[in-house]
Amino acid sequence: MVKGEKLFASFNYFFLALISLVCLYPVLYVLFASFSDNGLLTQHTGILFKPLGFSTAAYEKVFKNPMILAGYRNTLFVLIAGLVVCLFMTSLGAYFLSRKNVFFKKPIMMLVTFTMFFSGGIIPFYLNMRDLHLTNSLWGLIIPFAINTYNLIILRTSFMAIPESLIEAALIDGAGHGRILFSVVLPLSKAILSVMILYYGIGIWNAWFWASAILQRRELYPLQVVLREILLQNSAIAMSAGVDAGDQESVAATIKYATIIVATVPVLCIYPFLQKYFARGVMIGAVKE
Questions:
Q1: Any idea what DSSP says for residue 44?
Q2: Which of 45, 174, 181, 266 is most buried when burial is the number of CB atoms within 10 A of its CB?
Q3: Would you call 50 helix, strand, or coil by DSSP?
């Protein structure tokens, strides 16, 4: 390698390392602050390179708050049930639209694609959910969002890449379309199903808007709504009951940071195992008929 190439490579490594640090530091700051001593954190200004002191008081108060545990329970229910419903419904729709000789296939696909750009609006959607008795129910966060159009197109394109000879062989052997889908198509689509799990899972985990709009009972709040309440409505100060008035503000700050970490860690743990499928998922969805 010549001197110019070495210099260029060194600059690239330095520049990419700097970008990585800029992206990673906000997470590290929240982590360090969540383990910091309340008083020291309040007095500190500027960046953090390590926890100021070391205290787990914020995490103790977070896990003692019944809303956090209830939020986790509700979020896990919506996540598990939502993934099952979303994968099932999206697979059915993608399989139907990927088959040849389907009547009105192109008009149906145009109508499906139309929903990516236009919708009825927030108020009609809410009124529709209310008339279907999906408000104040966790199923209201699952059923109306069972199929994402973009994910449907990705899965349909992947199904179309499966050799038609396999489908014809299954039909000759007497298999119906349900059998073909669950015994032939889905087993050959494990990689793209991982993409669907990642897309749907992250979307469900981070969702808060419709949960805050349709849920009036606090015991049904998912974790992200609880987190929003703590961050924006000063619930953290209420959680610090029993603490001296002078320390409430600092305890509230550390509780906010601890709550962010508690809500983020599960996604950070799962994402690296599925991240490698992102590129393939994007490439598959880039080609549409």
A1: -
A2: 181
A3: coil
State the Cα–Cα distance between residues 289 and 283, nearest whole angstrom.
14
Inform me whether the pLDDT recorded for 240 exceeds 60: no
Write the CB contacts of 22 (distance below 8 Å, at least 6 apart in sequence).
none
Q: Give all domains of the chain, ordered by start, each with its CATH number.
A: 65-233 (1.10.3720.10)
pLDDT at position 84 is: 94
- Provide mean pLDDT across the span 267-274: 75
Looking at residue 77, its pLDDT comes to 93
Residues 243, 251: contact at Cβ < 8 Å?
yes
Q: What is the pLDDT of residues 157-201, one digit of tens each?
A: 888 888 888 888 888 888 888 888 898 888 888 888 888 888 898
Alpha helices in the chain (DSSP H): 3-34, 38-43, 57-64, 66-98, 105-114, 122-131, 149-160, 164-172, 177-180, 190-206, 209-214, 223-232, 235-239, 245-274, 277-285
Q: Give the Cα separation of 142 and 77 in Å (integer).
A: 10
Residues 9 and 16: their CA atoms lie apart, in Å, by: 11
Residues contacting residue 117 through CB under 8 Å, at least 6 positions apart: none
Angle at 224 between CA 223 and CA 225, to 5 degrees: 90
pTM of the predicted structure, to 2 decimals = 0.77
Task: Judge residue 195's burial from the number of C-beta atoms within 10 Å of its C-beta, 0-12 exposed, 13-18 middle, 19 or more buried.
Answer: buried
What digits encode the pLDDT tens for the residues 80-113? 999 999 999 999 999 998 888 888 888 888 998 8
Assess contact for 204 and 83: CB atoms under 8 A. Answer: yes
How many other C-beta atoms can be found within 10 angstroms of the C-beta atom of residue 116? 12
243 touches 232 (CB < 8 A): no
